[in-house]
Amino acid sequence: MRILLVEDDSLLGSGLLSGLQNDGNSVDWVKKGTDALSAITTTPYDAVILDIGLPEMSGLEVLSSARSKGVTTPVLILTAQDAVSDRVTGLDTGADDYLTKPFELDELFARLRALTRRSRGLSSQLIQHKNIIIDPSAHSVTLDNQNVELSRREFSLLIELVSSAGRVLSRSFLEEKLYSWGNEIESNTIEVYIHHLRKKFGSELIKTIRGVGYTVPKE
Ligand code: CA
Where is 168: in which H helix or E strand? Predict the structure, then answer.
């Protein structure tokens, strides 16, 4: 998943950054509300982790402004222990979930998985496409009930394509989903991963739509 982390506390922020990266996510970290707002409105994140207590522009202002601009990205807010009114206002302003500091990383991961599952319209934890079953929480994939070994990027790419089956995803969209800022991307990177996925799941899984992008046909 590509995640935007908004947290002005350096210690907590760097802990969350490495935790989220170790869990297999691409993460952009910003400390200011204004940076958060411009990132949210220009990048297709799977989820945003938004601290409420930020200097200058608060997390609630970021959230309200993003929602008024039509941004539908799932947002999980981080609030202080005693700030009940922040949680209420946050949910009323368009937050999808909240966590109270301090929290366990495992709980954050579980809530993020639940959020993105809901935003993809999936009720089950598993993503299934024909004979492929993906378990995002276990980072595992099976083909005809046999485990398939995938790299982190291959895994992310497969989830993107399969959960959007029937739709065409452009190469630039997929690049944005797989890479955070500052990652160097070779121009043929996505093609290379698509090639790997076809080798592992069969060439008919992913269709190239010339000049447009890639799709996993529904039928
Ligand atoms: Ca803070």
Answer: strand 168-170
What ranges do the domains of the chain cover? Answer: 2-119, 127-215
Interval between CA 53 and ligand 1 midpoint (Å)? 4
Listed residues: CB within 5 A of ion ligand 1:
8, 51, 53
CATH topology match: 2-119 vs 127-215: no
pLDDT range class, residue 123, cuts 50, 70, 90: low
Q: DSSP string spanning 8-23?
A: --HHHHHHHHHHHHHT
Q: Which fold has domain 2-119?
A: Rossmann fold (3.40.50)
- What tens digit of pLDDT does each residue of 56-75 get? 999 999 999 999 999 999 99
- Fold for 127-215, please state it: Arc Repressor Mutant, subunit A (1.10.10)
In 3D space, the residue among 165, 138, 167 whose CA is nearest the CA of residue 150 turns out to be 138
pLDDT band at 9 (very low <50, low <70, confident <90, very high): very high
Q: Are 173 and 165 in contact (CB under 8 A)?
A: no
Q: Which two tokens stand for residue 172?
A: 């630039």
Both tokens of 120, joined, read 């993809």
